[in-house]
Design a protein that fits this description.
164 residues; mainly beta; Pnp Oxidase, Chain A; three-stranded antiparallel beta sheet; 43% strand
Length: 164
Amino acid sequence: METFTPGPDTARAFRASLGRFATGVTVVTTMTDQGPLGMTVNSFASVSLDPPLVLWSPAKASHRTAHFIRAQHYAIHVLSDRQAELCQRFARDGDRFEGLDWAPCDLGRPLIEGCIARFECETTAVHDGGDHHIIVGRVTRATTREGTPLLFSRGKFGRFQASD
């Protein structure tokens, strides 16, 4: 067991400690003047059932973040354990929609098919969160299907296995 005070000298250890918390993996999409844009995000969480609110936190250092801060509408796609390639695609570049099964919805949000859940959202608030922004969205439409979620922990992908 290692105990430390988070700070500049222990940033790597702090990041490794945070990585011990397994998260689901999402791709958040929006439409820009240049076309559809996506970003892989694991900082997604539910906030409220009434009203239906969720949040996610893009890094301020990402060149894509400004587009999402300005976006009124976006979609959060929860990836299945068979979509690791999709996760990696949008972790590197945000405009890699070629060859994907996607279409814009009535409000223009790019909607990717094949995910186990999708939340179409409108931005309700953006908060400062240190080196990230915290974007809160009201869910206006949700879509789900059966499947196993893609998980991320300790820098690796995995899958959920229920205990007996």
